[in-house]
Amino acid sequence: VATVGTSEVGISPLASGSSVSGSALLDPSTGFGLTITRGWGSRGAIELSLDRSMHDVTHSSFDYPLAEVTMTTLAVSLEYRGGATSKRFSPFIGIGAGYSLNSSDITSEVKSGCKLVNATCTFDIDNSKTLHLNAGTDFFVTDNWALSIEGRIITGSASTVVSRKTTTSTQSAEGDINLSRIDMMAGIKYYF
């Protein structure tokens, strides 16, 4: 759940232009990514991942999304691998950091409302830094390839600006949106 720092963020673009109190929410989504892992010793590993996810930003006072946010994240993790139950299973825990390139667009519902009053509406989001904790297990199919299940607790925030422009006025609101979330991933890893 993401909360916008000012109540007007995500609300000003509505056709009336009036402010409504409440919270903006980052909806759960699906995504995809690529992960490369380099093991060292019998217990350590470093992981580099590139992930992309798409999220709707909704508001607690409305039934439709306000914006669509795409997050492309490059992250690095240090992992400890221990307690292997067999040669094939390798559970792990880790900590890491990432940088997300974020882009956004106002939804068609908001665009339609703004068009009715001859307004142009935008939702801009800055790029963001993230920190994460991760845990999971790998099942090795060969010495280098593994099937993986992993969960990440991710923390981060980004600055947002929502604006509504007409021929006679411009309204805008700034705030921070909390991008913290829990990601669950399943996939294939390559160890080199």
Q: How are the SSEs ordered, and which strands pair?
A:
Elements: E1 24-26, E2 31-40, E3 44-59, E4 67-81, E5 89-106, H1 108-116, E6 120-125, E7 128-140, E8 145-165, E9 170-178, E10 181-191
Parallel strand pairs: 2-10
Antiparallel strand pairs: 1-3, 2-3, 3-4, 4-5, 5-7, 6-8, 7-8, 8-9, 8-10
Write a structural description.
The chain is mostly beta strands and 192 residues long. It has one helix spanning 108-116, and strands spanning 24-26, 31-40, 44-59, 67-81, 89-106, 120-125, 128-140, 145-165, 170-178, 181-191. It has a seven-stranded mixed beta barrel with strand order 2-3-4-5-7-8-10. Strand 8 and strand 9 form a beta hairpin. The longest helix has 9 residues, at 108-116. It is elongated and about 70 Å long. The relative contact order is 0.23.
Keyphrases for this structure?
192 residues, mainly beta, seven-stranded mixed β-barrel, 1 helix, 5% helix
Number of helices: 1
Give the overall shape, derived from the CA principal axes.
elongated
Give the neighbour order of strands across the main sheet. Answer: 2-3-4-5-7-8-10
* Radius of gyration over C-alpha positions, nearest whole angstrom: 20 Å
Helix and strand content put the structural class at: mainly beta
Low-confidence stretches: 1-21
Q: Compute the average pLDDT.
A: 81
